[in-house]
Structure prediction request, 445 residues.
Amino acid sequence: MPRLRDPIHGFIELSDLELKIVDSAPFQRLRNIKQLATTYFVYHGAEHTRFGHSIGVMHLVDRAFCSATGNYARDSGECLFCEVDQVWYRQLLRLIALVHDLGHAPFSHGSEALFDVGVEHEDFTKKIICETEIAPLISAVGEKFRQKYNVGEEYSITPQLLWRIYGEKNPESNPEYMARLADFKFLKTFMDSELDCDKMDYLLRDSYYCGVNYGKYDLNRLIDSLTVYYNKNQNIKQLAIEKGGVHAFEEFVIARYFMFIQVYFHKTRRYLDKLLVYCIGEILDQARYPAPVEEYLNWNDDLVIEKIHQKVSSSENAARFVAREVMSCVYETHTHANSNTNSSDLQVYRMILKKLKTDMPDAVVEEDEANKLAHKIPILEPYDADSGKGIPIISRYLNRPTSIVDESLLLSGLGKPINIKRIYVDKQHSQKAEEIVKELLWEEE
Prediction:
């Protein structure tokens, strides 16, 4: 079995057919899609890409699924799935994880503003897995599975099925999905939940390459603590945590919180992302990425940088980006600025913004705010059995799961969303702007 050496997880095993997906042109393109956009201008080690992340998520989703179902079988005395279903679901998850980021634009989330209205990178992922050379490779995995286990068409693996489980917004309209509704919803939580393997990988990977400690947590303890809460009366299966793993989950959530405010929303990185969008917008026809998938796949970080350099003499934005000319952040709100439009923090923000534009009409003033971020803002929700939100905590002494918000005093305070708003001013006017801000703040006090 082929093995790849990963700096985060060590050796990662793939099947021969999975390796063919990795070797395909759409997947190799991910080698030229940076994971953290322009963050490498701030943390110079952050040159890592979606390529390694995708392989890492495949590795973790395999570990997590086996751990959760294994712990359930140990504690309940019965298997959650029959043998064939267990192996089939495991293979489905590995493929979903492997291809889940294929649709990312150059510099990942950094340039998603250049999609057509209503389009997201997931829409291109669907096109890539269904309309390119990836499609027959996925189907080949399914065909080999059916031959090995001597099962019928109901165990086929297709791009459409992968997308139905992971990306489809209304999968309930498909009868094949409804036939395994509880199982497929359970599978999705490994890739899209407060406890998903996508977050598990990118926190450790981003922390490692940025050279910071904010994103570190006890991965092995967290995975070993995964289990399943199975409500047989309602036929609901939910990814859960054993009570002994609460501290590992606390560490995981706090790591995400600090990475968000220290790295993902770093003031310099955020400004450079905006400048990058301006530059790419000048390069693309009608400032939009092409819709046809074969044209879209031609775009990667290297092509963007090459074209930006070609426009240095004719574009002020390109010249500033290549020279890394960063505007000064002269004011930012508190980390948890109230989104209420009447809050005092936002009133001060609007007052400062108005004053800067009035007193310095020649200055270039830019705004940025957290609610426009592509990263999901960390908000911990209480567990609710009906909606499936939150993380159930399993205790051997109780018949019903409890909520992480009830179990962890530390995390109960993280229900308030991050909402940082910043004001940037060009270097030429930054000193005067800072004096205006200080004067206004003194008056407010």
